[in-house]
Amino acid sequence: TYVDSDICAEICNLLGNAYMTVGNYDRAYKCYILAQESIRVYQGVDTYAEVQTLNNLGNFCKKTGKHREAIDYYDDALEMLDRIQGSAPTQYAMLYENKGTSYTMLGMYDEAMSLFEKCLAINQEIYGENSSYYATTLCDIASACKSKKEYDKALKNYNDALSIFHNIYDDKHPAYAETLNGIGDVYFAMG
Question: What is the pTM of this model?
């Protein structure tokens, strides 16, 4: 039934995420495929559960260095979101950010920046400029700027993110430390 397939897909996605976290990518992939099959067999229509599964498959590809395949999964998820009735801006933001990260890894910085800007606008509207979501997107923008050798822009975005993370968390939080590391990477790249 619809409810059973939704629960099955959710469990498979959660298991897949757990396997990704511990580095068992083969099992993660199998869980995501099982989730996708469950949705397609029992629901047969575009659903948010399938959007999440496509995102997870994209994340799997991104994590394993298959960035072009990841982009294809993110594109499929975005197209499905467009077909689903109702608004899902947070899912759009998540997919824009993930797709942008893959573009960054492929050296396609302008494409990445365009997606990060869309994500930033959504995060600003929904969560505000003092949220971890907003700060995380600023870090993504900073990383792309660093790769483009736009060091002043990279530092500005990293420092803005650092300030937000400092206000939300303490100085020992991983997001704060990762942002400091990003700042250090920019200074190292500058020579």
Answer: 0.89
